[in-house]
Amino acid sequence: MKGIVFTEFLDLVEEKFGIEMVDKIISESDLDSDGIYTSIGTYQFSEMLQLLQSLNANSGIPISDLLLTYGEHFFNVIETSYKGLLDRYKDPIEMLSSVENHIHVEVRKIYPDAELPEFIIEEKTEDSLTMVYKSSRAMHHFGLGLMNKTFAHFNSTASIVTENIKDDGTEVKFVIKKN
């Protein structure tokens, strides 16, 4: 997993809970990196799981909610650092439907060895989108946070329903209907 995912997560934890919480979740976890991350480095997904589990234990917030909030935070990072990527789109459905064929292509130019989830478009209309998330990592709530902020970015709203295809969350269907 790319280091930017870790550095931004720790920034969010510091912003929401304080530097003491960052220190606590790092020290409570058994991290090969010792919690020292660079945005361009590559780290084991198991480290992110440990950090999330520790934050969950110390905050009482479910991991799914932590990932949702983190996805929303990460969208702000994209909006600030990669504005040109977002400016290409005029509509949230258009943008979400191009994750696999455009956005992930651009991400791979910056991070060639990034392990990205796969998004398969099942159905698309002007006001709706059905897509399937597939990943070895059950982080679809992170994706949901990104989707929520995508609609906010375009001054729009949507109902987004998730349906687990696999119980472990590694394959999830998103049914999105623009309001």
Automatic annotation (TrEMBL):
Domain of life: Bacteria
A Pfam cross-reference name: HNOB
Domain Heme NO-binding residue range list: 2-160
PANTHER family documented for this protein: GUANYLATE CYCLASE SOLUBLE SUBUNIT BETA-2, SOLUBLE GUANYLATE CYCLASE GCY-32-RELATED
Protein name from the UniProt record: HNOB domain-containing protein
